[in-house]
Specification:
Low-confidence stretches: none
Mean pLDDT: 96
Structural class: alpha+beta
Number of strands: 4
Distance between the termini: 7 Å
Order of helices and strands: EHEEHE
Strand content: 25-35%
CATH architecture: 2-Layer Sandwich
Number of helices: 2
Number of domains: 1
Length: about 60
């Protein structure tokens, strides 16, 4: 089973880092990031967003 990226929208501070790294996966909506297309980029690119999130709001769900 593939890993699926998710965003904890309650924790998200809408810094926009994930959107700038992977706009094909994330967008800002309603004051928080949303993984609107969780399979829209390579796992490595999405991992950059997971690792770079300043509030650890982006995570993998198996």
């Amino acid at each position: 089973m593939a890993k699926i990226v998710e965003v904890d929208r309650e924790s998200c501070i809408a810094c926009g880092l994930c959107v700038s790294v992977a706009p094909e996966v994330f967008r800002l909506e309603g004051g928080a990031s949303l993984a609107y297309n969780p399979e829209g980029a390579s796992e490595e690119k999405i991992q950059q967003c997971v690792d770079g999130c300043p509030v650890t709001a982006i995570f993998w769900r198996n």
